[in-house]
Fold Response regulator receiver protein.
Amino acid sequence: MKQVRVLVVEDSKTMQIFLRNLLEPEDYEVVVANDGESGLDLFQQGMVENRPFDIVMTDVVMPRMSGLDLLKKVRTLNRDTIVVVLTSDANVDTAIEALNLGANNFLHKPPNSEEILSVMWRATKQREIFLENAELNPFTERTIHIEIPSQLKFIKGIAHNIIADAKLMGYDENELRDKIPVTVDEAVTNAIKHGNKFQEDKKVYIDIHIDIDRIKIVVADEGPGFDVKSVPDPTDPTNFLKPSGRGILFMSIGMDEVRYNEKGNILTLLKYRVSPDE
């Protein structure tokens, strides 16, 4: 197992020395930044050099950029980095805010050595599990099968399930959040509204298959189908003004391939890890 890289972002020289002297003998590679801005620079540099930090330990109150603002930036750049927040605020509100922003843990200052090492050990194990999962991804396939009655209220959780499983397979969560929800919403809404005509005795079936190369979503309804040739051309700007044209356009933008079966009651959506155009 490679040495765990820790970025300590702390404006107190005393705390910097304390943390370095505590962590380095435990075989952590420690890099220190004096404030949030320089911490962000070092974090980005690590990503560019393909030597990302496994754990970020940051103070909250610092000049130029606060620890909470740094946390937001780190979460945008890499959601899998473990972030531990150091706070001297006796009020638990700061810790709660940090957790809500995506921190994995927090420590009250001044923390004792045993508490720090315990938190770091748990953070390291959490990171190891993620890395081991990533190594297994090329040999893993995930499937989800969902059956819902023809009610729109059941649509909301479908995209969340797809994104959660795709993230475990190493897909970019931020990109998927931009594409999957609107695509799934349009596809399942069409199946309920136009396919099953809101008939609650008829179901919509959603089958998802995720592997290292692509995400495949198949949406099927129990309706009579339709003439597939009547589907508006999503590349024609005039179709954007048509309700059905907007849905096809959204799905075409969000996915790499969109196709119907001959009957028109099964829709297949494909999203590749690497776009065919690249």
User: Anything to note?
Assistant: The chain has two domains: 4-137, 141-272. DSSP finds eight helices and ten strands in the chain.
